[in-house]
Each structure stands twice: as C-alpha cells, then as structure tokens.
Amino acid sequence: MRAATTIGVLGLAVISTLAAVPRQGSAAEDQPAGAEGNSGPGDAGKGNDFGFFHRQDPLEEGDAAYAKGDIDAAIARYSEAIARYDIPAIEPDPRAALAHNHRGLAYVSKSDFDRAIDDFTAAIQLDRKFAAAYCNRGDAYCGKGDSEKGFADYDEAIRVDPKYAHAYNNRGVAFGRKRDFEKMIADCTEAIRLDPQYSGAYINRGAGYAEKGDYQQALADFTAAIQWQPKSAQAYQQRGDAYRKLGDSRKAEEDYARAKEFQTRP
To answer: Which CATH number fits domain 56-157: 1.25.40.10, 1.10.287.130, 1.10.357.10, 1.10.10.10?
Structure first.
C-alpha cells in the first residue's frame, strides 16, 4: 500500500507563458498560450526575398530548445535574438520583447530569478501592454520570496489584460502559498471562467479546496483537470490523495498507479 500524500500548495502548477512569435504588431496583441502548453511559432524568420537561403529565426530556435528541455541552448538562442532585435537606435522590433520574455522563462527554469526579473523588466519596457511579462515577473519575484512585488505584477497583468487567465491562476497560487485559500479559490475560479479548459487552474483550485477539507469539491476539480489533460500525473496524484481522504483506497491506488505511469513516460 502506498502511504497517503498530503495535499498542499507546494508544487502547484504555475503556468508561465511563451507568447507566439508575432507576424506583426506588439507582443501584447498576440493570443496568450494555452493553459497546458506553449502557443505555436508564428511566421517570423522563415526566409528572405531571395528564396535560396533559409535560416530559422533564433527566437524560434530558442523555443524549440526550450520545448526539448535544453535550457542552456535556449538561453543562447534567445540571447542571439535579443542582439538581433533589441536595437535602441531603431524602432523596436516586437520580437525583442518576446525574446526577453522567453529568455526570462529559461532563467526561471534554472531558478536564476534575478536574471529572469531583468529580462521580464526589459520586455515590459519594450511593450508596456505585455501582460505575460508582468505575470512571469510576478512568478520570478515570488520565486525569490518577494511576494509583495509578485502580487503587484499579477495585479498589473490583470489591469493590462483583464481576460488573461494565467495571471488569475498564478496569483491564486501565490495566495495559496500564503495559506489564503479563499482568495486562492476565487482567483482560480476566475481563471476557469475565462478559460474553461484550463487544467492547471482546476488542479490549483482543487488543492485549495482540499486544504479547506472539502475533498468532494477537490475531487471534482481534479477530475475536471484530467478531462482536459488526460496524462497529467499531478492531477491523478492529487485525486488519489482526495480519494484516500474520502476513504476509497481502491480508487486512490488506481490513481497513484496512473500518476506513476505518466511520470515515468518519456
């Protein structure tokens, strides 16, 4: 028998955002990434007018390396993109803000929060309406223990884009870490209202309900998360914990087995 796992706010699914490479316009004009994955690359950097030379955009190369988990290679490609696009003497290329934002996420993956904050700040300076950059900087501030600045950035992301579900979700996680589960649940509920397929928000809201002892509601949220992301090891793990709390050991063990299966898959 597997020992029961405590449901807690540590390790909740904070969703960071790789914004799409734009065809035109500002970074903030692009649709945000999906709840459980990055949005696809745009058409930037797919060649030139001569037709005989094609080199992929370094921003896209960075995204490809990031998706493979090669963070150092991603940082190198994003740095190349920044050198190419962030040229103060000319009109800002919208890809410059994206490159800073994406490199910031790579630094977050390495827990290098100070460098991440510098990059998110640079992205914001290039595009004051870049909600994802505010949200991601909030994550970085919370990661280094400065929740006051983190909350300020989540609030600003929401002010810039009131329909940005990630900002509500991530602010909810921050409330959960402060053990304010009512506000956590409220923010995750708003994220779900804005994006009914947001698996991470269901997981986080379920964890908030579990912390309050409402395991039936937690069970419903973890089940909803699995509906939208059937291979989520975290959702199965959390639902298994809820089943155990409700006294259903058989279903708990089934969910633990599924969680282990998805954790070990390549």
So the answer is: 1.25.40.10
